[in-house]
Write a structure and sequence with these properties.
Length: 370
C-alpha cells in the first residue's frame, strides 16, 4: 500500500511538472510564435523562465525532462528544439566526472542563467562513417588548444556554451569539452535562412586556436563518455516528436465540427495517430527509466522509436494539413508551420537516414540479436 501511495505521488509530481511547463509555454510562446518561426525573435527570455521553474533541472528522472520538452513542442517546435539543446547541455555537465567543471557550470545551466547547446552533429556523423571529425586539438599546460569549424550549432549567443568533441592531432584519442562562445577566439556566423526554425540561435562556429582549460573538459577520453550519455541524448529528442504529433492530433480534432463529413474520406484519422502516440510515449518512458543501460539490446531499442518518431511527426503533420485544408495553407495557420517543423524532427542528427544506417550497422555487428 505504501509503495502504491509513493507511485501515485510520483505520478502527481510528474503531471504537475508537465502542466507547469505547458502553462508557461502557452503564455510565453504563443504571442511570439510567428516571430520565432520567422527568425525575428530568439526566445531567450522564455528559455530563462523555463529554467526558473525547473525545466532544465529535472534530469533525476529523464521522463520528466522528456515530458517537459514535449509540453513545449505542443506549442512551438523551434523552442522545443532549443529545450532539447539546453537539456542536453545540462545532461553532459551532470554526467561528467570533472568536479571543477560541474562547480563552474551546472547550477547556472540548470537554472537557465547560462544557455547553450550541443555540437555533436558532426561527431555523431563521424562515429558512423558519414563525415570526418572537424575539430582538432593538442595538449598544452592546463588544457588544450583546439581549432576547426562546425557548420551548425543551435541555442547559441555571444555568452552561451556548448559541448562538442575534438580529436587529438596525433589521432590517439578524442576529447569531449565545452566551448565558451564569449571567448574572443570563437566566432559565430549566422546561418542562411532555413525552411523553419530560424529563431533557434543557430550559427556556424569557428574555433581559431581556442584555449580549452581543464575545467571545460567533460571527458578526456570521449568515447566511454559518449556511450554513457548517448541514450539520454536520443531519448530527449523524443520530446520534440511526441509534442508535435500531439498537437497535430489536436489540429485534426479541431476541424472535425466543420469538416468531418469530408475528412472522413482521408486515409489517416486523428485516432490512428493517437494510437501511434500512445505506443511511442509508452516505449519512450519505459526506456527513459534506465538511460545508463549500455547493452546493445537496449541501444537498439532506443534507436528504433527515435526513427519511428521522425516518421510519425512527418505523417501526422501531413495529415493535419490535409484535414485543415485551405485554412491550413495560410501562412498564419499552425498546420503549415507544423509540417515544416516536422521535417526537422526527421532530419536533425541523428537523421532518418542515419538512424537506418545505425540499425543496419548494428545488425551486421551483432547478428542474431533482436
Amino acid at each position: 500500500m505504501a509503495a502504491l501511495r509513493n507511485a501515485d505521488k510520483v505520478e502527481q509530481q510528474t503531471v504537475s511538472f508537465f502542466e507547469g511547463v505547458a502553462s508557461l509555454a502557452r503564455s510565453e510562446l504563443t504571442p511570439i510564435l510567428q516571430q520565432i518561426d520567422d527568425g525575428e525573435i530568439f526566445p531567450d527570455k522564455a528559455m530563462r523562465r523555463f529554467g526558473e521553474i525547473g525545466a532544465w533541472s529535472a534530469h533525476a528522472d529523464l521522463r520528466d525532462t522528456i515530458g517537459g520538452i514535449s509540453a513545449i513542442a505542443e506549442v512551438c517546435g523551434a523552442t522545443a528544439f532549443m529545450a532539447w539543446c539546453q537539456d542536453t547541455l545540462v545532461w553532459y555537465i551532470l554526467n561528467s566526472d570533472n568536479a571543477a567543471l560541474k562547480a563552474k557550470f551546472l547550477d547556472r545551466a540548470e537554472s537557465g542563467q547560462l544557455l547553450g547547446g550541443t555540437g555533436l552533429s558532426n561527431p555523431m556523423k563521424s562515429f558512423f562513417g558519414i563525415e570526418k571529425l572537424k575539430l582538432k586539438g593538442r595538449r598544452v599546460d592546463g588544457g588544450y588548444i583546439v581549432r576547426g569549424a562546425l557548420p551548425w550549432v543551435s541555442n547559441l549567443g555571444p555568452d552561451h556554451l556548448f559541448g562538442t568533441i575534438f580529436e587529438l592531432e596525433d589521432g590517439s584519442d578524442k576529447v569531449m569539452f565545452l566551448v565558451d562562445c564569449a571567448d574572443p577566439a570563437v566566432t559565430l556566423t549566422p546561418c542562411q535562412p532555413f525552411l523553419a526554425m530560424d529563431g533557434t540561435g543557430t550559427y556556424g562556429v569557428q574555433l581559431r586556436d581556442v584555449f580549452i582549460p581543464d575545467d571545460q573538459v567533460l571527458a578526456a577520453s570521449a568515447m566511454p563518455f559518449v556511450k554513457k550519455i548517448r541514450a539520454g541524448f536520443i531519448l530527449m529528442q523524443m520530446g520534440m516528436g511526441l509534442g508535435l504529433v500531439r498537437d497535430c492530433i489536436e489540429l485534426m480534432q479541431g476541424v472535425k465540427p466543420a469538416l468531418a463529413h469530408v475528412n472522413c474520406y482521408l486515409p489517416q484519422q486523428p485516432e490512428d495517430f493517437a494510437a501511434v502516440l500512445a505506443e511511442l510515449e509508452g516505449a519512450t518512458m519505459r526506456l527513459a527509466a534506465t538511460p545508463f543501460d549500455t547493452s546493445n539490446a537496449y541501444w537498439r531499442e532506443v534507436v528504433e522509436p527515435r526513427l519511428r518518431a521522425g516518421d510519425a511527426a512527418v505523417a501526422a503533420a501531413h495529415a493535419a494539413m490535409l484535414h485543415c485544408g485551405a485554412r491550413g495553407y495560410l501562412k498564419s495557420h499552425a498546420a503549415q508551420r507544423r509540417l515544416r517543423e516536422a521535417y526537422f524532427v526527421a532530419i536533425v542528427t541523428p537523421a532518418t537516414k542515419q538512424l537506418r544506417k545505425m540499425l543496419a550497422d548494428n545488425a551486421r555487428e551483432h547478428p542474431g540479436e533482436t
